Amino acid sequence: MTRRAARPIKRSGAVDRAPGWPGVINRARISGLLLVVLTAGAVFSLVTDSRFALGAAGGSTDVELSGLGYTDSGAVMEALGLADAGGNNVFLLHTTDIRRRLLDLPSVADAEVRVVLPNRLVVAITERSPVLRVTRGGATYLLDGDGVVLELRAANAPPLPELPLIDDRRVELGIPFEIGVRIDPIEAAAMLQIGALTPALIGSAATTIAFSADDTDGFVVSAEPYGWRAVFGFYTPTLRPPSLIAQQVECLRNLLANGEAGIATIYLAPQGDRCGTYLPRPS
């Protein structure tokens, strides 16, 4: 015979009661609620207190910029995206977003953005390094080692003579130069390799060498005071790639070793055991 479980005996008059407010509200919960309110008030006070706000956008006392060489400071301030005076509370500034906008500038390689209390924004810029100048149509452009156009140099800007200069006189065969964009890879490779040449690298006793490009001869290297011209020519992805320049330089060294004073023009076209042709200077 199966026994049934005993049922609890419910006393008469007993009533089920919900915990009610006394069971919910206690000192700990009240203290927590007060802490939340006080914290919210403190945060509101910080983000509205004028003592923690930058002054006018670009104010030299509030925004500290460093590392600028050729990068336009106006472009940097625009990338910061600061509001009008008094609207830049440092607790509301998103430094990660500011850094991302700065890295979008073509001449900026890296950037550090940090807030210094009570009301300063410190921005340290690391610029890309220009390695070459190219003049085209009266304008001078700065290129980095990847062939990216960093800047259109202002006419009154310092000339930067330490950077090699290519005078690009091409019209029909010219290429576009756009700030922040890499030029044609073939052109970039040719310009960077030819622009890196020095008298010592080509075995010349010349005091200076100059670089140019035109629609007739392509890339040309000329030397002073001897006055000879070395025609490097044009380059294409397949038939005449920029990798040919290393052979051309070696040929030029061999030809100049025989005496550069008697040379007028050298046409560098390495093929087999031949380096090309040259025109002697009239005696």
Describe the structure in your own words:
The chain is of the alpha/beta class. The protein has helices at about 20-25, 25-50, 75-80, 95-105, 185-195, 245-255, and strands at about 55, 65, 90, 110-115, 120-125, 130-135, 140-145, 150-155, 165-170, 210-215, 220-225, 230-235, 265-270, 275-280. The strands form three sheets. A nine-stranded mixed β-sheet has the order 8-7-6-9-10-11-12-13-14, covered by helices on one side. A three-stranded mixed β-sheet has the order 2-5-4. Strands 1-3 form a two-stranded antiparallel ribbon. The longest helix is centred in the N-terminal third of the chain and has 22 residues, at about 25-50. Residues about 40-50 and about 55-60 have low confidence and may be disordered.
Number of contiguous helices: 6
* Unreliable stretches: 40-48, 56-60
Ends: how far apart? 137 Å
| Basic shape | elongated
Radius of gyration: 36 Å
Overall residue-averaged pLDDT value: 82
Strand order of the largest sheet: 8-7-6-9-10-11-12-13-14
Main beta-sheet strand count, sense and barrel state: 9 strands, mixed
The helical percent reads 10-25%
Percent of residues in β-strands: 25-35%
Q: Pairing-aware structural class of the strands and helices?
A: alpha/beta
Order of helices and strands: HHEEHEHEEEEEEHEEEHEE
Strand count: 14
